[in-house]
Amino acid sequence: MSGGSGAAGGGPRPAVKLGVLLSGEGTNLQAIIDAIERGRLRAEVRVAISNKPRARGLERARRHGIPAETIDHRGFASREEFDRALVAALRAHDVELVICAGFMRLLSPVMVRAFHGRIMNIHPALCPAFPGVDAVRQALEYGVRFSGCTVFFVAEGVDDGPIIAQAVVPVDPNDDETALAARIHAEEHRLYPLAIRLYQEGRLELDGRVVRVRDLPPPATPGAPINPRPE
Ligand code: GRF
User: Fold this and answer.
1) Ligand 1 midpoint to CA 12 (Å)
2) Whole-number pLDDT of residue 154
3) Contact 162, 206 (CB under 8 A)
4) Of 18, 39, 119, 183, most Cβ neighbours within 10 A?
5) In sequence order, what are the residues at sequence separation of 6 or more whose Cβ sits closer than 8 angstroms to the Cβ of residue 20?
């Protein structure tokens, strides 16, 4: 769970080898690639894997010279069989940390145990609120004043693993699903590379179900955000 295997002592830890799982647009994959290319994240995307052959995320990977593969879940009799194929592909590419980025399949214990403590996911809500699909719509229907996104270690439930990092966005009374989703998405693109960086630097430590982050600077924000703002 602390990442950056094999690096003891002072020197910089090696780049973390990522395998990214996706089903759609892949804007989070893009944010991770951009962070790597800008020198803000010591990582290498070894492979991008989609369960959907036409996922745009695969094209994004190819454009950056990253191997892009499809493993179509419809070709497998069970979730476990599909996950066995995923595990084999990820291992074939020597993946250390699995990044779920809009991967629309629930992972079975086969995957979760094979990469125990080494699978991250991102959810467009402040966990444990609004798990599952339609988190943005759920937040609007509930009338929350803040929502956001959460990066967590995948455990054997739905969106309920140990939380690594969260970002908060205000919910505007005039928001529709598109507007709120866009605001959350923009934060996801900052949050996911940060969470991976903390892993790569070996700063994440699991204490029960709580992820402790080592060597944090003091919080920068004076006072709590309030929405609507006091007049
Ligand atoms: C994100 O909103 C993420 O929170 C959810 O799926 C979406 C993926 O977006 N798990 P993208 O494919 O990375 O653009």
Assistant:
1) 30
2) 96
3) yes
4) 18
5) 26, 29, 32, 45, 47, 48, 49, 57, 61, 98, 99, 101
Tell me, yes or no, whether 28 lies in a domain.
yes
Pairing of strands 146-153, 68-70: unpaired
Catalytic residue among 73, 93, 123, 185: 123
Looking at ligand 1, which atom is closest to the CA of residue 185?
A: 2
How far is residue 141's CA from residue 177's CA, in Å, rounded to a whole number? Answer: 10
Please give the structure tokens belonging to residue 131.
Answer: 């798990």
Q: Is residue 222 one of the residues assigned to a domain?
A: no
Q: Return the CATH number at 37.
A: 3.40.50.170
Give the whole-angstrom CA distance, residue 143 versus residue 130. 12
| Distance between Cα 190 and ligand 1 center (Å) | 13
Segments in the chain below pLDDT 50: 4-8
* Residue 96 lies in domain: 16-121+153-163+187-209
53-104 residue pLDDT tens: 999 999 999 999 999 999 999 999 999 999 999 999 999 999 999 999 999 9
Q: How far is CA 22 from CA 33, 69, 103, in A?
A: 14, 10, 4
| Percentage of the residues of the chain whose pLDDT score is greater than 70 | 96
Q: For residue 192, what is the enclosing H or E element?
A: helix 177-200
Closest atom, ligand 1, to C-alpha of 184: 2
pTM given for the model:
0.94
